[in-house]
TrEMBL record:
PANTHER family per the UniProt record, alphabetical: HEPATOCELLULAR CARCINOMA-ASSOCIATED ANTIGEN (PTHR14614), OS04G0645500 PROTEIN (PTHR14614:SF123)
Origin superkingdom: Eukaryota
CDD domains in the record: AdoMet_MTases
Annotated GO MF terms: protein methyltransferase activity
Descriptive protein name: (wild Malaysian banana) hypothetical protein
Location of region: Disordered: 1-22
Pfam name, any one: Methyltransf_16
Naturally occurring in which organism (per UniProt): Musa acuminata subsp. malaccensis (Wild banana)
Amino acid sequence: MERGGKGGDTINQRIQQPEAEMGIREMEISGHKLIIHERDDSSDPSTGRALTGSWLWDAAIHLAEWMAADGGPHLAGATVLELGAGTGLPGLLAAAMGAARVVLTDVAPLLPGLRASAEANGLGSRVEVRELRWGSGEQAVAEADVVLMSDVFYDPEEMGGLASAMRAAWGESTTGWAASEVRPGVGECLEALRREGFEVVEVEERVRPLLRAEGETSVFAVYRIRRA
């Protein structure tokens, strides 16, 4: 997810476990200190399976690093939407970097963690948390200057719903920035978005250590997305 030119960025991380169902991860990205809440009790009510969006993943860190580096998107005064926010690191960083309004969206079980993180960072006045299931009418989506996404390119069949949410947020000058681990299936997702009328261009690719696999690395990329 990070650009090669961002190799000098520093991220400090520390995990605390104040209670069984909630962890607190403290992050520092290019001088911006953020608190991220991770929940262990969030599950899909229809399947009972744990929601992986409850935890912070490498693609979100990669996108956040890229945003804070020279050449990242201009965020001061912007309206920012994060789709599939999970723990919300990129969106929260956008608020810390001066965005005027940030809307974090995801499925209902993940919203308490997002709200806790917004409050913990003193960003409640500029950060809104809203439920959004892609392709469900997009009532929670308003036009944004910048749309952020990480770890959303996992299933080509989901891209139609994602594209619907993106179109609801897109204005004439909107630009999207997405980060993903480069793995099988990502290319198919990008092609599906292109068929939905979006221009997707890789702007950076870099190898980075994995957060949850000590000693292992993987390749991450950042993509710029515009209406074709």
